[in-house]
Structures are given as C-alpha cells and as structure tokens.
Specification:
Strand content: 25-35%
Distance between the termini: 11 Å
Organism: Desulfosporosinus orientis (strain ATCC 19365 / DSM 765 / NCIMB 8382 / VKM B-1628 / Singapore I)
Number of strands: 10
Binding site for xanthine: 27, 157
Strand order of the largest sheet: 4-3-7-8-9-10
CATH topology: Rossmann fold
Helix content: 25-40%
Radius of gyration: 16 Å
Number of helices: 5
Largest sheet: 6 strands, mixed
Domain Phosphoribosyltransferase: 24-164
CATH class: Alpha Beta
EC number: 2.4.2.22
GO molecular function, one term: xanthine phosphoribosyltransferase activity
Length: 191
C-alpha cells in the first residue's frame, strides 16, 4: 500500500535499527484519513471472505480494527484484553503473549460471550514482528472454535520471523507494508 509506505518513509523514527516508531500516526496519535484507506485496503484484500467479527489485541489494534469494521458491514470488533478489570466476565479464553517492544509477557483474555464456533474472524493488528501476539490470538480463537478467515497486518517486519509462524498455521496473511530491514535509520521495504 503505497500511501502507507510513503507515510512510514516520511514520519517513522528508527531506534537501534530494530524498532520502528510510528506513534505519530499509527499507535499513539492516529491519522484517521490513513486509517480509512487501511480499512478499505483490508476490505479489498479480504473481499472474498465471509467475516462475522474482527478480533484484535489491545491497545493499538483497536482503532484500526474499528475503522476497518465499517467496510465489513459494521461487524462487531472484539479485542483481547491484557489487563482484565473487576467488571470483566470470569468465563474467558486465555493465552500468553510476549511483547517485543515492552519486553513483557501478558495473559490476554476474551470473554466467552463474544466468540462462538459460528464466527468467521478477521484478525487485524498494527504490527507483525515475532508473531507472539498473533499466536496468542490464534490460541484464543482455537479455544472458541471460531474460524479464522484471515489476518490483516498494517506493518510487518520480516526480519523477526513472525510470518513463518503464522503461515505454518495455514492462515491467509496480508500485510500492507512489509519491511525487510532497518538500516542506518532508513526503512527498507520488501518490493
């Protein structure tokens, strides 16, 4: 998606040639016009799939998933919580995930009220790096019996091997911007 790649080239910051900071448009301050184009692109790429729900993980995936849902007939968005409050149903699906950027493990949860074996789910997330978050979501969906119709990623970092783990599960994976490497403060996209 050229619009996204251009935004990354002009606005992203690189740290230690391993972390790409896109908080000025993707996961802290949000560029809603860009998100609308991202939602349209996910709809184009998954138009042949029946989608009954979109699933993501808090926090950065929520806005992207919500805007994307508009293009799938406003299907519900369900997000896995990293921190369950006292008001969360105790009957949940759970999985462990490791956050690469936070260097921390989380126990993610989704209430059993919101996923059923009848659901056809599109997973949406901001990044694919090591694949831990997606494998956690995969586990939650497997526990629920829901069908995973596809996985939509905004930015993928191929040098962290997450794609291989997702493809081994046989999932249809679409990434809008695929980064091969971060070198000398520059983003090198897969062409």
């Amino acid at each position: 998606m050229q619009l996204l790649k251009d935004k990354i080239r002009t606005s992203a910051k690189i740290t230690d040639n391993r972390i790409i900071q896109v908080d000025n448009f993707l996961n802290h301050q949000l560029d809603i016009a860009l998100f609308n184009e991202i939602g349209k692109e996910f709809k184009r790429r998954f138009s042949a799939k029946e989608i009954t729900k979109i699933v993501t993980i808090e926090t950065s995936g929520i806005a992207i998933a919500s805007i994307t849902a508009q293009y799938f007939n406003n299907v519900p968005v369900v997000f896995a919580k990293k921190h369950a409050g006292l008001n969360m149903n105790k009957d949940v699906y759970e999985a462990k995930v490791f956050s690469y950027t936070k260097n921390q493990e989380y126990l993610i949860k989704i209430s059993k009220d919101y996923l059923t074996p009848n659901d056809k789910v599109l997973i949406i997330d901001d990044f694919l790096a090591s694949g831990s978050a997606l494998l956690g979501l995969y586990s939650l969906l497997a526990q629920s019996g829901a069908e995973i119709a596809g996985v939509g990623i905004v930015i993928e970092k191929t040098f962290q091997e997450g794609r291989k783990l997702i493809e081994e599960k046989g999932l249809h994976l679409e990434s809008l911007a695929i980064i091969d490497s971060l070198q000398d403060g520059q983003v090198i996209f897969k062409e």
